[in-house]
Amino acid sequence: MRRPEFDDIFMELAVNLAKRSHCIMRHVGAVLTKDTRIISIGYNGPPAGTHNCDEEWPEQGCPRDSKGGCSLAIHAEQNALLYAVKNKTEVKGATLYVTLAPCLACARIIYTMGVSKVIYLNSYAEYKGIESDEGVDFLEKFGVEVERYHGNISHATALT
Q1: Any idea which residues carry the catalytic annotation?
Q2: Ramachandran angles phi, psi of 86, nearest 5°
Q3: What are the transmembrane regions (predicted)?
Q4: Coil/strand/helix, residue 88
Q5: Which pLDDT score, from 0 to 100, does residue 155 have?
Q6: Please, which residues have CB within 8 angstroms of residue 25's CB and are 6 or more apart in sequence?
Q7: N or C: the chain end with fewer CB closer than 10 Å?
């Protein structure tokens, strides 16, 4: 039996975490690691203790903000970083595995928190129908290592 690579383990976990999301638009999962250890996890959704979008607004999802985005959800990478900080975990130098390339707003937070590497599964630009992955471009411009995952997820099922 072949031992799985850590990248495969962490990305598979991110894919499975995405299945926890209550968002009806997109399920995204994130795993924050340091030195081959998981230091935090996250998935997209409204703040804990508020409500679940798929239960309160099952047909159309939560209300949209002025730019057409979800007015309530915290992105998966934000949740992972916030949980780590809330628990006084040092994230500087960490690697973030995420099922969707970070948006520009998340990229700014990732950079500011000192995350050194981001590995993403799917393109945000392809999902949104925009020209480029602005978050990836931002991170690369300011020295954060970014790569698209091309490994082997053997036990995870497709994202919805």
Answers
A1: 77
A2: -55, -35
A3: none
A4: coil
A5: 60
A6: 61, 70
A7: N
Taking only the tens of pLDDT, the chain with its 160 residues reads 678 899 999 999 999 999 998 877 789 999 999 999 999 999 998 887 877 777 767 777 777 777 667 767 889 999 999 999 999 999 999 999 999 999 999 999 999 999 999 999 999 888 878 899 999 999 999 999 999 999 888 765 555 4
Q: Where are the domains of the chain?
A: 6-148
Hey, CA dihedral for 90, 71, 118, 159, is it positive or negative?
positive
Residues belonging to the binding site are 75, 103, 106
CA atoms of 65 and 41, how far apart (whole Å): 26
> Would you say the C-alpha torsion 30, 34, 40, 46 has a positive or negative sign?
negative
CATH fold of 6-148, please? Cytidine Deaminase; domain 2 (3.40.140)
